[in-house]
Automatic annotation (TrEMBL):
<comment type="similarity">
    <text>Belongs to the HIBADH-related family.</text>
</comment>
<dbReference type="InterPro" id="IPR036291">
    <property type="entry name" value="NAD(P)-bd_dom_sf"/>
</dbReference>
<protein>
    <submittedName>
        <fullName>NAD(P)-dependent oxidoreductase</fullName>
        <ecNumber>1.1.-.-</ecNumber>
    </submittedName>
</protein>
<dbReference type="InterPro" id="IPR008927">
    <property type="entry name" value="6-PGluconate_DH-like_C_sf"/>
</dbReference>
<dbReference type="Pfam" id="PF03446">
    <property type="entry name" value="NAD_binding_2"/>
</dbReference>
<feature type="domain" description="3-hydroxyisobutyrate dehydrogenase-like NAD-binding">
    <location>
        <begin position="164"/>
        <end position="253"/>
    </location>
</feature>
<dbReference type="Pfam" id="PF14833">
    <property type="entry name" value="NAD_binding_11"/>
</dbReference>
<feature type="domain" description="6-phosphogluconate dehydrogenase NADP-binding">
    <location>
        <begin position="2"/>
        <end position="161"/>
    </location>
</feature>
<keyword id="KW-0520">NAD</keyword>
<dbReference type="GO" id="GO:0016491">
    <property type="term" value="F:oxidoreductase activity"/>
</dbReference>
<dbReference type="InterPro" id="IPR013328">
    <property type="entry name" value="6PGD_dom2"/>
</dbReference>
<dbReference type="InterPro" id="IPR029154">
    <property type="entry name" value="HIBADH-like_NADP-bd"/>
</dbReference>
<keyword id="KW-0560">Oxidoreductase</keyword>
<dbReference type="InterPro" id="IPR006115">
    <property type="entry name" value="6PGDH_NADP-bd"/>
</dbReference>
<dbReference type="InterPro" id="IPR015815">
    <property type="entry name" value="HIBADH-related"/>
</dbReference>
<dbReference type="InterPro" id="IPR002204">
    <property type="entry name" value="3-OH-isobutyrate_DH-rel_CS"/>
</dbReference>
Length: 272
């Protein structure tokens, strides 16, 4: 299988390197030449446009930031769908609205191309070690055909159901993480008010029954949320907004989780 990879950020770059290392013929595209420089020592080819990349690929993996970026690289004038062969597959690793994936999948289907949603969780270190979590939705046979490539950077790979299921799951994961940040930061703040040093308190709690991935993030930063604000804040805010939209459209109550997530986002925006 020939693989194209778009989105060479902190998580996408190690994913692409794992694909190359697994022996797949790989083509890369990036908006910034600097993103391609670390791959100069690999056998990967470089394309001038997403369309050119698609022409050289059977599977195109997309790991860009948001819905607008996904729509542009997949369906734009020089996008993947303009040149991907019939029978080709697009895997959307980005975290986006499931409706975006469904809309692009309908466009892809008209061209004889399949699209699956396969958002990932774990970050750059997990990608480097081949232990990302892939949450896949779409036609099960199509997802299965992608599994050998996904396995180069992910374990486990979980199939969740129809197209969009992966995105819904990833968004709920991110909102729960954000909510856990709020409760963890609240516990640390209470500890400070009661006279306990925040960094040590967070370190101790991260080894107790109240531990969570969110608390571990706060502990590594010395007991504050400030380190997460510049990069993670806008992304988590985007995901919380998407979950709120989905809940409203479905007539479902988001419950306490979104309120807690909003509290964490407020703390990151105005750290105390």
């Amino acid at each position: 299988m020939r693989v194209g990879f778009i989105g060479l950020g902190s998580q996408g770059a190690p994913m692409a390197r794992r694909i190359i290392g697994a022996g797949f013929e790989t083509t890369l595209w990036a908006r910034r030449p600097a993103s391609l420089e670390p791959f100069a020592d690999t056998p990967a080819k470089v394309a001038g446009t997403p369309a050119e990349l698609a022409a050289a690929s059977d599977l195109v993996c997309v790991c860009v930031v948001n819905d607008e970026d996904v729509a542009e690289v997949v369906g734009g004038e020089h996008g993947v769908l303009s040149c991907l062969r019939e029978g080709g597959v697009i895997a959307v690793h980005s975290t986006v609205h499931p409706g975006t994936c469904r809309r692009l999948a309908a466009e892809a289907e008209s061209k004889g191309v399949a699209l699956v949603d396969a958002p990932v969780s774990g970050g750059g270190p997990a990608a480097e070690e081949g232990r990302l979590l892939v949450m896949a939705g779409g036609d099960p046979a199509t997802v299965e055909s992608c599994r050998p490539v996904f396995a180069s950077y992910a374990d486990p790979i979980v199939y969740l159901g129809p197209l969009g299921s992966g995105q819904v799951t990833k968004l709920l994961n991110n909102v729960l993480f954000t909510a856990n940040l709020a409760t963890s930061a609240g516990a640390v703040a209470l500890g400070v008010a009661l006279g306990v040093e925040p960094g040590r308190l967070a370190e101790v709690l991260s080894h107790g029954s109240g531990n969570s991935f969110a608390l571990g993030s706060i502990a590594r930063a010395g007991g504050t949320l400030e380190h997460l604000a510049p990069l993670a804040g806008p992304l988590l805010q985007k995901d919380a907004r998407l979950v709120a939209d989905l809940a409203e459209a479905a007539g479902a109550s988001p419950g306490a989780v979104l309120a807690a997530a909003d509290a964490a986002l407020a703390l990151m925006e105005h750290p105390r």
